[in-house]
């Protein structure tokens, strides 16, 4: 800077010192001493012209030490000396100043900026505030500045007040600019926030038809925010990454984003924990009152009078003991009595004597109390208690034991007109009987709701489909229809009857397609379960007839069926016999007339054939005859015309036989047991014990792990082969004997047919999870068959494809249920 610039700076500095500093307005409420007071204080302590002493006094007022004031005074004197030298040099350089006037104008702008900075530097408070705002930057402080800052070390630069700046309002404004900005956080009061709905507990549905949703704190309406349709909501949710932590505020009709603290509170509430994470439920107990009782407590209560007066009750007790001693009933050193102690054996153990003597206290029951009189027993009862003539007549006609009251209310008007009570003796006698015959022990009665004991079962309407109504009746048989069977395709139905005929029905229409007349009772008919062949077996009298209905088969199935049946006639296996030469079986070729009707093989036996069952492969056939012993059960191989006896001896009469649907097992049912044999290992696997008197039928679930057993004593037993030999569940809903039980091969259904003329359909779901028990639910009772000679429904079969059920009965009819 040139000499002219320094001269201008000196002039501006002197003018600045002569100007009056900007003062605070009077309305600000800041206590600043006036000029006369300040001058008076200076006059009292400082002589005129003593400028150094004046600086020291001002430093003391501003809170600085004496050393800093001396430095300020020395610095000011140096500046005055420099000003005098520059004024002398200014006279000799006037020409130069005139030539550089343009440069002076440019320097004035720079001088104003430097003067403002120099003025700020004069206040140490602004220096400390500026150094705080440039945090993290490297600064160099000289020795003088360190001295100035040491004075303010005792002050917190963030807590300075307006009084710390004295009369310098400009410095206070500059200091305010250096303060950090206020962060309008959660706890700040901001007028820009959305208005809060103040409707309280008023339901928001009341404002459904209005354009506003409530009122704010000033009573102004809060208009309903615009809402989009479901598509807009879906698109907003797809674009919003915080959709899973957003909750709906129904009062203010807006979505609120949950904070981490609120989510933590929700998780704690869901987990059953305390919502407050900082709460410690196991804090140490603070004993506000001591738990230790003082031995000699200090109290200001007056002592009781009874503490100074002898107790008469203690006197009576002592006199009683004295009289006992005088009478000899209490003696010192008397032997202890060893007499046996008797107690009530059937009393509760809780009633024992607390002393431990072993005696049990008998709990006394209060005598029954008499019934309190009512208004009807008054001599002058109200009018509503007086009976009418019709009520009097009904009361007289009733039996005395069934009357609600044993008297009729009567209005006597005055007490003097009341006669003597004629039933006084009878009522006193009845009261004596009540006291004499009152119970002397408490009877614990458990109050249970019968509905609570019932198992919680699903609604049958939720378990559809199942057969529920009669759809078709097949008429034609003249005797009992003992057996029916549906072919694997589900299109044809076979039926065998006591009239000696086997009829083939078209299942959908009920048309009888063909009749075979065997002139003997047909006990059982059964289709071959193989899909490749078209064969059925009929147990007629003492023989089993193998029939191929050629009219129903296509060429491929007919060829396979004929090869299977006729292969055994020319083979050497037909000539082989069983090791036991007494095997009562012979394979015969039917006559030409019988062959024309479709009969290809006849297996003759010595006794009546009761039952016929096929193996799942279709080549083996098991029969049950009426004779006892091991010869009653035989297994026949159709392709080789060979028969074998699997059992040499059997315990009890066999009632039913069945091949297992998935394993090489064979079920033999006797009168009380179901024995399961392994045909490959030739061993007994398990014996089921239904706990019934007489087993009538048995069936195996298609999955092979559950068995149902029906009996003539009206019981149905469900067995889980993986659990136990005892039934998992026993059901007794029929009123007569159960004739047949049957599982559906496709649906979770099973049915029971009984002599009471009904068929009961059940839902039997078997789960793949071994930890979950089967679900058995009664669904429907089907009624339609007539009871003939105490016989009702004799057989039932499920359709192999549809949830349909077919049944046959003693009335000679076959019915289709859908």
UniProtKB/TrEMBL annotation:
Where in the cell?
Nucleus, Nucleolus; Nucleus, Nucleoplasm
GO MF annotation, one: ribonucleoprotein complex binding
Q: Could you tell me which residues belong to the region Disordered?
A: 1-152
In terms of SMART domains, this protein maps to: BOP1NT (SM01035), WD40 (SM00320)
Predominant location of this chain?
nucleus
What family is this?
A: Belongs to the WD repeat BOP1/ERB1 family.
Stated name of the protein: Ribosome biogenesis protein ERB1
Q: What is the lineage of its organism?
A: Eukaryota, Fungi, Fungi incertae sedis, Zoopagomycota, Kickxellomycotina
